[in-house]
Specification:
alpha/beta, binds magnesium ion, binds adenosine-5'-diphosphate, single chain, 9 helices, globular
């Protein structure tokens, strides 16, 4: 868990004369869950899409699994898994057919039912994407990132809009994927999610990285700077109450 699998140096992205990414540098280590945290408009998706080869950068260097983005973007595409918007899937096909289609595109063999089992969607194999709940859609789109057996997957706000049970189910899925050795980069603006999932996080604000470390270290540093919570925290929060009363199990109809 120490070699960088992604190295980003002085990355800049201009949209016209607006600078969305202002010269950021970071490394992602092999096998970690790395979080890009920031408010809306911080530049998270732009950064991710540049690394994914989907968006041109203005300047800077990006290396992914030893390949230079400028020289070998095709090699990078082969080792990464990218989550598509669920609206982007062929509407007429069911989950099984979609996975088979992706296998064909990637020229990979895999058992679609095994993949659906991993994301807890076996009983929805014959369903179309539009018939899935929000959480099921997200789990399916995470499943599709795994079809080309990537070394790294990219998840851009995978839990936005999900209820607490579906969110926790997706967290477990992300952890399972990492357990199998896949490096995960995830963006989020939910700090509880980052604290639970991420080994290290970069906090990005207005196109700049303002902090980068483990969640634990960032919290300890803040306390060391004299920070105190305005009032004593209770030992549980409202989400704990909600989960305690309604359980972890998924409600997907
Ligand atoms: P985040 O994912 O953190 O919410 P984005 O990377 O989507 O942020 O956007 C960063 C900034 O760049 C925002 O101010 C956004 O409005 C702007 N932006 C994103 N895409 C484009 C684009 N295609 N053209 C112009 N500005 C864009
Ligand atoms: Mg975004």
């Amino acid at each position: 868990m120490s070699n960088p699998i992604i190295t980003v140096r002085d990355l800049v992205k201009n949209y016209g004369n607006f600078q969305a990414v202002k010269g950021i540098s970071f490394e992602v280590k092999e096998g970690e869950i790395f979080g890009l945290l920031g408010p809306n408009g911080a530049g998270k998706s732009t950064t991710l899409e540049i690394i994914e080869t989907l968006r041109p950068k203005t300047s800077g260097q990006v290396m992914v699994d030893g390949f230079d983005l400028d020289k070998q973007p095709g090699e990078i595409k082969k080792v990464i898994g990218v989550q598509l918007q669920t609206s982007g899937y062929y509407p007429g096909l069911n989950l099984l057919q979609l996975i088979e289609l992706f296998c064909g595109l990637y020229n990979r063999r895999m058992d679609p039912m095994e993949l659906l089992e991993m994301v807890n969607l076996k009983d929805k194999a014959k369903a179309k994407v539009k018939e899935l709940s929000g959480g099921q859609k997200q789990r399916f789109s995470v499943a599709t990132t795994l079809i080309n057996q990537p070394r790294i997957i990219f998840l851009d706000e995978p839990t936005t809009g999900l209820d607490p049970q579906a969110r926790r189910s997706l967290w477990e899925l992300v952890r399972n994927i990492r357990e199998k050795g896949t490096t995960v980069i995830i963006t989020t603006h939910y700090m509880d999610e980052a604290e639970y999932l991420c080994d290290r996080v970069a906090i990005i604000d207005a196109g700049k990285i303002v902090a980068l470390d483990t969640p634990d270290k960032l919290i300890d540093d803040l306390i060391a700077r004299g920070f105190e919570r305005p009032k004593e925290m209770k030992l549980a929060n409202l989400e704990d109450v909600f989960i305690n009363l309604t359980g972890h199990s998924l409600r997907e109809g």
